[in-house]
Amino acid sequence: MPKLKRSRVWLYFTAKDINPAACNKCLKVIMCKRGNTSNLMKHMASHGVFLKAEKCTTFDNLQQDITPSTSTAGVVPVLGVSNIQEPEEESPAPSPASVAEMITDDADGSSTRSSLDTPFTLAKKATMTKEKVDEIHRAVTKFIVKDLHPFSTVESPSFRGMSTALNPRYQPPSRDDLSNTLVPVWYCMEKSNLIQNLAQVNKVAITCDGWTSIAQDHFLTVTVHYIYKGKMKQNVLSTEAVYESQTGPVVAKEISSVVEQFHLGGKIIAASVDNACNMDVALKKLDFLKVGCFAHTLNLATQKVYDIPAVSSWCAKIHSVVVWLKRSSLSKTVLREKQRILNLPEHNVILDVKTCWNSLFLMVERFMEQFDAIQAAALDLWLRKPMEKDKLERFTHTDLMKAEEFIKCMQVLYTSTMCVSSDKSPTCSQIIPILAKLEAHFRRCDEDSVFTSSIKGKVWGSLQKRYQDENLQKFLKEATMMDPRFKGRLGGEAATDIWDRLEKAAVANATAAVAQPLTEDPKAHSEVDDADMDKPEKYLSKVQKSPLEKLFEDEDRELQQAASQAGRVPSITEQVQKELQIYKRLPGITSGQDPVAWWWSKRDTLPNLSALSEKYLCVPASSTPSERVFSCAGHAISQERCRIAPEKANMIIFLQKNC
Questions:
Q1: How is the beta sheet containing 20-23 ordered, strand by strand?
Q2: Distance between CA 405 and CA 415 in Å, rounded?
Q3: Which residues pair with 232 in a beta bridge?
């Protein structure tokens, strides 16, 4: 007689033979020797089903209480949480003898000793309340996840010893409980809360980028950006491992899957991605407006200076000296000594890396800052005299002048990159004003040297080819106008056309937001009742006027028209036009002020434009939020924990960045 399968995992699998079983979702065959279900549960975790965590209630107190609305599209069932509360059974009144034997738990989980101690009450004192255990479990899980500690930390002797010293009655969770129960439950709870929060937002933007871990797993990260109650918000949606070639259609399918998980269909205004061709194809397939990463665009323009032979040979001299200083074991000590003597900042030299944004500018800037210390260190007897010292000695005054010109010319690109990489203020509206400033800065003039003129030509020649798409140009100009910091930067006929498009967009946005009117009773509009029509004398008496009314009939008609005009509710178009006139007359704000907070303060005066501003100001100008996620992912999937499962890495990154 075959053994009865009691595990709930068999609801998702079909037994093929004695050992293998096929997944009902992906049809993959998984080995389960002698009915062992460990491999089956691990496979279901890759589908987001965590069977061990279903009955865990440790994180139930983190569930958000949001007022239910008519729409339930943004609500998903939470693992281990029931929406139906069972009625509590009434317990019988305790007897006086039992009350005397009751033990009172303190706030810290300890118990006060009663005068009537028995072996049973003493045993009860040795246990902790469930609420206290859950509270400590949450603290331990947060400690492991937020600080990116390995799961094995909870089983290390030092951690167990610390736990015993803090509370001898507390038993820390095992590595298996932490990995397969506590972390998945916390992840499902926070994911559900995020979906509920996003359900209250109508307009969002996303960023997307790919990354390869040290374990050679490729991950695709998607972040979401939106405005809620006058504040910029951003969250990490997913950092999932992908195992297919990252062509455009495949990337589009992966992004679409994430969008469906968080119910963002129809809400995405634009997507900020790098300039890779597969991203371009993917966004066209998804019909999303593509905003090319402005920081990446600036870096590509910077890399063009390597194509200039004079600049390339000049940079090679600095590069070789920096490499020599970094390879020498005593160079740091000698350089620190020279910096103290010359009263210079104790900074290390920087080596340029082509894939690292602004690294060439930072290398030259730091080299010039520490040039005196580097020159003094090269003459020190503690360091050997290799060939690089001769290169430093041949670094002439002309080369120093070129370095100063280079820093002066490229400083604006570094500052622009820092501006659009901010995650606390709107950045999409900055692209057009920054490009205008860069055009003026890189315009060649007669006073420029050949060295500077060649750099300006290369950099601006690359930048002027970007952002030429007509739809993107319109969106960026509209975003600039909706930013009170830059609304006066665009003028002429182009500004008139932009204001017209903004008016149409505001009207469409307000019309879509207007609630459906209530159904009215058609009988209420009847001017004359049927019963009154049968009484001609009564009907005629209503239209008869007194001699005084006949005399001042024209004046009364003018008064009635004026009253109706004053009491008439203006149409949406008229409201928007009036708001635009008010917005144009309002003074702009400085670049250091927050435009999102400014619009939030004007939500009563300019309600339609304030709602429209969220469409433009939520879009980031660069994909740096995804890059910041990769920095966290590099610590989560480090050399010491490179065997962590990709789905567990996704949970850790999600919790670490969002909680």
A1: 13-15, 20-23, 29-31
A2: 16
A3: 227
| Percent of the chain residues past pLDDT 70, beyond the cut | 81
Residue type, 568: R
Quick one: which H or E segment has residue 576? helix 572-585
**H or E element at residue 185:** helix 183-199
The confidence score (pLDDT) of residue 556 equals 75
Q: Determine which of 75-89, 186-200, 242-256 has the lowest per-residue pLDDT on average.
A: 75-89
Q: What secondary structure does DSSP assign to 94-145, as a single string? A: PPHHHHHT---B-TTS-BPPPSS--HHHHHHHTS--HHHHHHHHHHHHHHHH
Helix (H, G, I), strand (E, B) or coil at 334: helix
Contact 341, 372 (CB under 8 A): no
Token pair 């279903």: residue: 54
How far is the C-alpha of 5 from the C-alpha of 169, rounded, in Å? 37
Residue count of the chain, please give it: 659
Which DSSP string do the residues of 586-604 spell out, in sequence order?
Answer: SPP--TTS-HHHHHHHTTT
Q: Which residues contact 426 (CB under 8 A, 6 or more apart)?
A: 232, 483, 595, 596, 616, 617, 618, 619
- What residue type is assigned to position 437 of the chain? K
Lowest mean pLDDT among 31-35, 307-311, 410-414, 428-432: 31-35
Residue type, 457: G
State the average pLDDT over residues 30-59: 75
Residue 14's DSSP bridge partners are 22
Asked if residue 103 lies in contact with residue 125, where contact means CB atoms within 8 angstroms, the answer is: yes
Task: Report CA-CA distances (Å) from 266 to 153, 203, 260.
Answer: 43, 9, 10
Are 224 and 237 spatial neighbours (Cβ–Cβ below 8 Å)?
Answer: yes
Strand order in the sheet with 289-292: 231-242, 218-228, 204-212, 268-273, 289-292
Q: Which stretches of 336-446 are assigned E, i.e. beta strand?
A: none
Q: Please give the DSSP secondary-structure letter assigned to residue 568.
A: S
- Cβ-count burial of 39 within 10 angstroms (0-12 exposed, 13-18 middle, 19+ buried)? middle
Torsion angles phi and psi, residue 68, rounded to 5: -65, 145
Q: Which of 201, 83, 217 is nearest to 650 (CA)?
A: 217
| Long-range contacts of 452-460, Cβ-Cβ distance < 8 Å, separation of 24 or more | 452/405, 452/409, 454/308, 454/310, 454/311, 455/305, 455/308, 455/311, 455/406, 455/409, 455/410, 456/409, 458/301, 458/304, 458/305, 458/307, 458/308, 459/301, 459/302, 459/304, 459/305, 459/413, 460/301
> What is the CB-side half-sphere exposure of residue 509 using CA atoms within 13 A?
22
As a whole-number percent, the residues of the chain with pLDDT over 90 amount to 49
Strands 268-273 and 204-212: parallel
pLDDT of residue 528: 40
Please check the confidence at residue 91 and state whether its pLDDT lies above 50: no
Q: Please, are residues 486 and 429 in contact by the beta-carbon 8 Å criterion?
A: yes
Residues in contact with 432: Cβ distance below 8 Å, sequence separation at least 6, in sequence order? 476, 477, 479, 480, 486, 489, 490
Taking only Cα atoms into account, the Rg of the chain, rounded to an integer number of angstroms, comes to: 35
**SS3 per residue for 456-471:** HHHHHHHHCCCCCCHH
The closest of 116, 90, 92, 93 to 104, measured between CA atoms, is 116
